[in-house]
């Protein structure tokens, strides 16, 4: 009897799973497989917190597959070796999986698997599970194509699978077995489909009402944001089921004046942004390692200032709100989007660190690390795309704006307990600062205003070089969003001409 290997990657569910349905519809037996790849988990953008979340999702998936009659095989090893071993043991004629927009390592692995499969005469069928389009010719019409996918009916899970006799469910290894670095994350979200469904329900029925207003606050956003990102990243929920559930809730609250309509509209737009940014990495995989606009190569030192990098990583820059955000991220594995952007911008502009030096560390800290979002955002918030508005966040102003009571900052920086509220975000202005700074809490590693000015001069110096606009036009044509039929921008947008000085920077966001 022919065997189809159903290769699970970042799609750890059975609901709305096109690859599962495709495998089940064929003849022969289905062998569900997850490969724990030591080479992947040795990368600098992976971490124990990510693995533990993944392992929890695998446990839930395993239970679902046992119920369907085909236990999940969990194999430790590199993909080609594992697949080759399984093909030697069983008459494997086909591999079915979803398309993956991952980092450079997974891209190279997939190419190696494709070569191996052709050599063994095994078909490999890859199917889409989101609005990201492989081998996209151009962005024109992309948003409409994505919308059609998201509005299509969800794929029903089969009632049963024809499993292989004698197979038993595999057990995921422990983080220590993968030699992952010690990574305590006591506030980490739990994985598994049940946890994801609970979050989706509570967001659409209670927590999400204040989403639009509260999502910029690291404290209020921790509750008002959906917190679905790790479940979408690892696929315990499909993006389509989240989007369709949100659309149903939007219809139910249409016309209400209680905040729900606006909040769910904002959330829907951010679900679309996810695919938009992932499409960038799908179209140009090198942007994980190269500036999207080549003129920015060499703008910042390739070798980072070690002291500044370490201070930023530990949450010890002497900039209270920045440090509070970093320490919160270290403890929980999550941070709201605006504060993620601020952490990157401060590192890139004020500390003048290259995004390739800071990106892997942030990726490790994010339980919801999604390469297709992470690397385009690292470049966008570092100003190296050549097409997006340059935002140099003022970290002091962000503290006053997003943590006006100081409750968030005080929670994560107990060493500032004696600092009066009026000086919490600028303790160097407090008369008691001399007995605090440099002792129990570090003095600022940079002068915020002076660092911003220097960054502005350097960045705009690049934009004024001859030929900059020609390459920027190429980037915009390939990656920028388009307008829909109503003339509205879909997802993010290319920069619009400003009135007055075209070189104006937005410093106080």
Task: Please provide a written account of the structure.
It comes from Rhodovulum adriaticum (Rhodopseudomonas adriatica). This is Deoxyribodipyrimidine photo-lyase family protein (Cryptochrome). Pfam families: DNA_photolyase (PF00875), FAD_binding_7 (PF03441). FAD binds at residues 211, 267. There is one protein chain. With 509 residues, the protein is mainly alpha-helical. It folds into three domains: 3-129, HUPs (Rossmann fold); 193-283, Serine Threonine Protein Phosphatase 5, Tetratricopeptide repeat (Alpha Horseshoe), CATH 1.25.40; 288-479, DNA Cyclobutane Dipyrimidine Photolyase, subunit A, domain 3, CATH 1.10.579.10. 47% of the residues lie in helices and 6% in strands. The chain has helices spanning 18-25, 38-41, 48-68, 79-89, 104-120, 142-151, 193-205, 211-214, 221-224, 229-234, 239-253, 260-283, 306-314, 320-332, 337-350, 355-365, 371-382, 395-402, 407-412, 448-463, 468-479, and strands at 3-8, 29-36, 73-76, 92-98, 123-127. Strand 1, helix 1 and strand 2 form a beta-alpha-beta unit. Mean pLDDT is 94; it is low at 491-509.
In short, what is this structure?
The chain is mainly α and 509 residues long. It has helices at 18-25, 38-41, 48-68, 79-89, 104-120, 142-151, 193-205, 211-214, 221-224, 229-234, 239-253, 260-283, 306-314, 320-332, 337-350, 355-365, 371-382, 395-402, 407-412, 448-463, 468-479, and strands spanning 3-8, 29-36, 73-76, 92-98, 123-127.
List keywords for this structure.
509 residues; mainly alpha; Rossmann fold; Serine Threonine Protein Phosphatase 5, Tetratricopeptide repeat; DNA Cyclobutane Dipyrimidine Photolyase, subunit A, domain 3; 3 domains; 21 helices; 6% strand; globular; flavoprotein; Deoxyribodipyrimidine photo-lyase family protein (Cryptochrome)
């Amino acid at each position: 009897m022919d065997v189809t290997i159903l290769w699970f990657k970042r799609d750890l569910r059975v609901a709305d799973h096109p690859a599962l349905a495709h495998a089940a519809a064929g003849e022969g037996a289905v062998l569900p497989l997850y490969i724990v790849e030591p080479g992947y988990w040795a990368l600098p953008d992976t971490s124990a917190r990510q693995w533990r979340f993944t392992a929890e999702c695998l446990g839930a998936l395993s239970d679902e597959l046992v119920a369907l009659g085909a236990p999940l095989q969990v194999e430790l090893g590199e993909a080609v070796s594992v697949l080759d071993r399984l093909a030697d043991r069983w008459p494997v004629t086909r591999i079915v999986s979803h398309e993956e927009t991952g980092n450079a390592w997974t891209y190279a692995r997939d190419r190696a698997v494709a070569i191996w499969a052709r050599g063994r005469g095994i078909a490999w069928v890859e199917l889409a599970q989101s609005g990201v389009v492989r081998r996209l010719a151009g962005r024109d019409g992309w948003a409409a194509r994505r919308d059609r996918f998201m509005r299509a009916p969800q794929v029903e899970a089969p009632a049963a699978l024809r499993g292989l006799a004698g197979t038993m469910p595999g057990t995921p290894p422990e983080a220590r077995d993968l030699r992952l670095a010690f990574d305590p994350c006591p506030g980490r979200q739990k994985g598994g489909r049940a946890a994801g469904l609970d979050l989706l329900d509570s967001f659409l029925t209670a927590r999400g009402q204040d989403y639009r207003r509260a999502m910029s606050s690291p404290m209020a956003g921790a509750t008002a944001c959906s917190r679905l990102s790790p479940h979408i990243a690892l696929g315990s929920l499909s993006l389509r089921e989240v989007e369709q559930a949100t659309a149903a809730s939007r219809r139910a609250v249409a016309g209400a004046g209680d905040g729900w309509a606006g909040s769910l509209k904002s959330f829907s737009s951010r679900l679309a942004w996810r695919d938009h940014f992932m499409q960038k990495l799908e179209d140009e995989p090198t942007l994980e390692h190269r500036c999207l606009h080549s003129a920015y190569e060499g703008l910042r030192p390739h070798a980072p200032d070690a002291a500044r990098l370490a201070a930023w990583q530990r949450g010890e820059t002497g900039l209270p709100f920045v440090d509070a955000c970093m320490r919160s991220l270290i403890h929980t594995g999550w941070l709201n989007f605006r504060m993620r952007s601020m952490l990157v911008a401060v590192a890139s502009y004020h500390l003048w660190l290259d995004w390739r030096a800071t990106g892997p560390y942030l990726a490790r800290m994010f339980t919801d690390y999604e390469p297709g979002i992470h690397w385009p955002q690292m470049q966008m918030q570092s100003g190296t795309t050549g097409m997006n508005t340059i935002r140099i966040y003022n970290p002091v102003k962000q503290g006053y704006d997003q943590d006006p009571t100081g409750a968030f900052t005080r929670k994560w920086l107990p060493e500032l307990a004696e600092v009066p509220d009026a000086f919490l975000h600028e303790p160097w202005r407090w008369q008691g600062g001399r007995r605090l700074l440099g002792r129990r809490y570090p003095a600022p590693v940079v002068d915020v205003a002076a660092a911003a000015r220097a960054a502005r001069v350097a960045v705009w110096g690049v934009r004024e070089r001859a030929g900059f606009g020609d390459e920027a036009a190429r980037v915009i044509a390939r990656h920028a969003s388009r307008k829909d039929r109503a003339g509205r921008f879909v997802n993010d947008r290319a920069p619009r001409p400003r009135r007055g000085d075209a070189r104006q920077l937005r410093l106080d966001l």
